Amino acid sequence: METKLRWGILGSSMIARIAVIPAIQASETGIVRAVASRSEEKAKQTAEKFEIPFYYGSYEELLADPEIDAVYIPLPNHLHYEWTIRSAQAGKHILCEKPLALNSTQAGKMVAACEEAGVRLSEAFMYRFHPRIERIQEIIRSGEIGEIRAMHGSFTFNNAAKESDIRFHADWGGGGLYDVGCYPLSAARLILGQEPEAVTCHALFSPNHGDVDMMASGLVEFPGGVALTFDCGMWAEFRHTLEILGTKGRIVLPQAFLAGDTAHNFLVITGKEQREEQPDPCNPYLLEVDDFARNVAKLQTPRFPPQDAILNMRLLEACLRSARERKRIIL
């Protein structure tokens, strides 16, 4: 790209500081022009740490900066809707953290607002940009593991001992499903290339943690008798895995969603044969921001259009509803 995308960061969250800001600064397609926070001092500290030229003590000030082309929104889930709409109205392209919204209705309005404003909107599922995903799809298409019969995904960690956490607020989009369950759910939709037909989910709602789902397990039914079983939560041993089971073999990702320098390898198992595929190390956050910049520059068609986020949000809210109401939800 001849002209780099000029980014503004709405908030100084941990994910912005440890992953996305460094990724943009390491990319060939973008620069971080400004960061904003509700605290000007916090914005200043972040700007100084990362040598960002400008900082603002409010999100409104950043959106008013005519030299910013795109914004990254790492705010708490309940703020995604408002600041995506306001960013679109300010003419900024938007990379918004997952999950995109609190429900599919909000997500639909966000997509519509961006379409009306003529700006790009993308949900920040960085794992999808790791080249091993394309390699896994290639293996499946080759027929090596046969027809897919089932998938299982997990994403758990334990922060139950924390006295307070934004994820302990149900009305803020808190809970394990929205925080980490969205990963195996989106992965199943991506790998299978289909939308689910029904879902049944069971959860542990903790009154000591704002009555959010601290642990959840579910069954997601896809066409053709294929299903995803999954578990997720914030009150269990840390792990994030994915298994794709076929009629002739299976693919196992021991570390499926937080790929680091050594976490990108996966296993292909067929009968008594087993091999470890070793994709080249990469930074999926950097791949994500580069992909976004090329979409903005209209150098390519978006691999994951914003309508995908609406569909994933529809599945997420169905899982939560199923767990709350203790019943199977038909989609």
UniProtKB/TrEMBL annotation:
<dbReference type="InterPro" id="IPR050984">
    <property type="entry name" value="Gfo/Idh/MocA_domain"/>
</dbReference>
<dbReference type="InterPro" id="IPR055170">
    <property type="entry name" value="GFO_IDH_MocA-like_dom"/>
</dbReference>
<dbReference type="GO" id="GO:0000166">
    <property type="term" value="F:nucleotide binding"/>
</dbReference>
<protein>
    <submittedName>
        <fullName>Gfo/Idh/MocA family oxidoreductase</fullName>
    </submittedName>
</protein>
<dbReference type="InterPro" id="IPR000683">
    <property type="entry name" value="Gfo/Idh/MocA-like_OxRdtase_N"/>
</dbReference>
<dbReference type="Pfam" id="PF22725">
    <property type="entry name" value="GFO_IDH_MocA_C3"/>
</dbReference>
<dbReference type="Pfam" id="PF01408">
    <property type="entry name" value="GFO_IDH_MocA"/>
</dbReference>
<keyword id="KW-0560">Oxidoreductase</keyword>
<comment type="similarity">
    <text>Belongs to the Gfo/Idh/MocA family.</text>
</comment>
<feature type="domain" description="GFO/IDH/MocA-like oxidoreductase">
    <location>
        <begin position="134"/>
        <end position="252"/>
    </location>
</feature>
<dbReference type="GO" id="GO:0016491">
    <property type="term" value="F:oxidoreductase activity"/>
</dbReference>
<dbReference type="InterPro" id="IPR036291">
    <property type="entry name" value="NAD(P)-bd_dom_sf"/>
</dbReference>
<feature type="domain" description="Gfo/Idh/MocA-like oxidoreductase N-terminal">
    <location>
        <begin position="5"/>
        <end position="124"/>
    </location>
</feature>
